[in-house]
Design a protein that fits this description.
CATH architecture of the largest domain: Sandwich
Strand order of the largest sheet: 3-9-8-5-6
Order of helices and strands: EEHHEEEEEEEHEEEEEEE
Number of strands: 16
Distance between the termini: 86 Å
Strand content: 25-35%
CATH class of the largest domain: Mainly Beta
Radius of gyration: 35 Å
Low-confidence stretches: 1-16, 201-218
Mean pLDDT: 77
């Protein structure tokens, strides 16, 4: 005799014994073998293409047999009230708490003593999961201290172009802090204040297009893009590391608007093509995320 014990709790009173007769399993095997023999030797003795009508009839027969077997089990056991419901009663509540991310701050490469051109961009030190935008606060400290002013960054980017800041001019110093904004939640906390300096009036000269192009950076030790500048919008992004996850590329124009987005993954690959055939001439920022690292490159299209 085979007993199947269904455990509800550790208490013995909460166990249910389902008694299956010794002839039960052999009978089940005989029924299954008999059904298969009838199907093979009676209905499918000759090979033929099964039509929709025949397939529907056979499916209905097999489903009916399965339901009938369920009815037999129910009649044998539940008629004697052997199958009693098992209720799970909670004995302790469970509370889950998410760890809040630390506040973001101005990227280290944008802080004093670095001088920033007023047509360049700044960024946060990292992305925040779920952030739809970032809110920046600029407080002028030199040469004329001023009240804080709030500047809303572009959607889905942690990059801000300084020419979007009201009153931005050469030779100024600001205290800058930033916080993330979310669509369905309260804004995050402002991070620590950091100094930002713009180039002095005597340091900025009108540059020719060739000088601007010569000052561009094609990348870093682990990622680069070429040709840069491009005369066609066709570029190749390359990296030096083994690809472990998707490469995510976003490009923004001088207004902070997203103009290009692409994800790429091919095991063993160390490059991906960038097609900007419809992009107009100008400066763009390319954000690259790869293997948990991020890099912002400046690229130029010069048609």
């Amino acid at each position: 005799m085979l007993n199947m014990l269904i455990a509800a709790e550790s208490d013995k009173a909460n166990f249910v014994d389902v008694v299956i007769p010794s002839w039960g399993w052999p009978m089940l095997l005989i029924v299954i073998a008999g059904a298969l023999l009838v199907d093979l030797l009676v209905f499918h003795r000759k090979a033929h293409v099964i039509g929709i009508r025949e397939a529907a009839i056979e499916s209905a027969v097999w489903i009916s047999l399965g339901l009938a077997f369920t009815g037999v089990i129910y009649a044998m056991f539940d008629a004697a009230n052997n199958l009693t419901p098992i209720n799970a009663n909670p004995v302790q509540t469970c509370t889950a708490q998410l760890n809040q991310e630390a506040p973001v701050v101005l990227r280290s490469s944008d802080r004093c003593p670095t001088f920033k051109a007023i047509n360049s961009s700044i960024a946060t030190d990292r992305q925040i999961c779920g952030a739809s935008a970032f809110e920046w606060e600029f407080t002028e400290t030199s040469p004329t201290p001023g009240a804080p002013q709030i500047v809303l960054g572009g959607a889905n980017t942690n990059v801000l172009f300084l020419n979007n800041v009201p009153g931005m001019a050469n030779g100024k110093t600001y205290n800058v802090r930033v916080r993330p904004l979310f669509q369905n939640a309260a804004p995050g906390d402002f991070g620590a204040l950091h100094c930002l300096k713009t180039t002095g009036a005597g340091m900025v000269m009108e540059e020719s297009n060739d000088e601007v192009l010569a000052s561009l950076s094609n990348g870093s030790q682990w990622v680069n893009v070429y040709p840069n500048p491009s005369s066609t919008g066709e570029m190749l992004l390359q990296w030096s590391q083994t690809l472990e996850s998707e490469v995510k590329v976003k490009m923004y124009n001088s207004l902070g608007e997203l103009v290009f987005k692409q994800e790429f993954f091919q095991e063993g690959s160390n490059s991906m093509p960038i097609h900007l055939n419809s992009a107009s001439s100008g400066m763009y920022l390319m954000e690259v995320e790869l293997n948990g690292k991020s890099e912002t490159l400046r690229v130029m299209i010069n048609r």
